């Protein structure tokens, strides 16, 4: 993964935190990253309003401006589940035989199992511009595309 994709992947964690805060959507179905473009697909039951989309972008960029630390560490699976609960997981399962998890955490914002690389601070992501989200009613999924602003 190149430097731009590391920034974009970290931005996906920032956007997920904003989506959780604004919409309450908990489970991520997938994450796609290519250069400075990303897409987060979350389980959700409707298309968000324009004001909700604006709030997601505002919250995400607020977290970037905070220069929050992005912490990566490993934990035994049982300990991680006991400490963080099921919020470390998304809809893509971690095999049962995996006993040690790599965790990425933006304190008070997002915590996930993740084996990708991340920048050390949210300010290194740069600005985030959301695209118009796409809602797939048959799957109850919301695709939130975004680009890193230069």
Structure, briefly:
With 150 residues, the protein is α+β, with helices and mostly antiparallel strands. It contains three helices and eight strands. The protein has one domain: Threonyl-trna Synthetase, Chain A, domain 2 (Threonyl-tRNA Synthetase, Chain A, domain 2).
SSE blueprint:
Layout: H1 3-23, E1 28-34, E2 37-43, H2 50-66, E3 71-76, H3 77-84, E4 100-106, E5 110-113, E6 128-130, E7 134-136, E8 141-148
Antiparallel strand pairs: 1-2, 2-8, 3-4, 4-5, 6-8, 7-8
Helix pairs in contact: 1-2
Task: Describe the protein.
- The chain has 3 helices and 8 strands; from the N terminus they run αββαβαβββββ.
- It has helices at 3-23, 50-66, 77-84, and strands spanning 28-34, 37-43, 71-76, 100-106, 110-113, 128-130, 134-136, 141-148.
- Strand 4 and strand 5 form a beta hairpin.
- The longest helix has 21 residues, at 3-23.
- It is globular, with a radius of gyration of 15 Å.
- The two termini are 19 Å apart.
- The model has no long low-confidence stretch (mean pLDDT 94).
């Amino acid at each position: 993964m190149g430097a731009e994709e590391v920034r974009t992947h970290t931005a996906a964690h920032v956007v997920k935190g904003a989506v959780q805060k604004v919409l309450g959507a908990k489970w991520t179905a997938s994450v796609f990253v290519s250069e400075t473009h990303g897409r987060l697909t979350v389980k959700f039951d409707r298309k968000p309003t324009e004001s909700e989309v604006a709030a997601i972008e505002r919250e995400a960029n607020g977290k970037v401006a905070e220069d929050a630390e992005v912490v990566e560490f490993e934990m035994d699976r049982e300990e991680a589940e006991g400490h963080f609960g099921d919020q470390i997981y998304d809809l893509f399962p971690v095999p049962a035989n995996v006993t040690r998890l790599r965790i990425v955490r933006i304190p008070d914002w997002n915590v996930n199992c993740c084996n990708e690389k991340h920048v050390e601070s949210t300010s290194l992501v740069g600005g985030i511009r959301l695209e118009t989200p796409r809602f797939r009613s048959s799957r109850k999924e919301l695709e939130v595309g975004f680009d890193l602003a230069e």
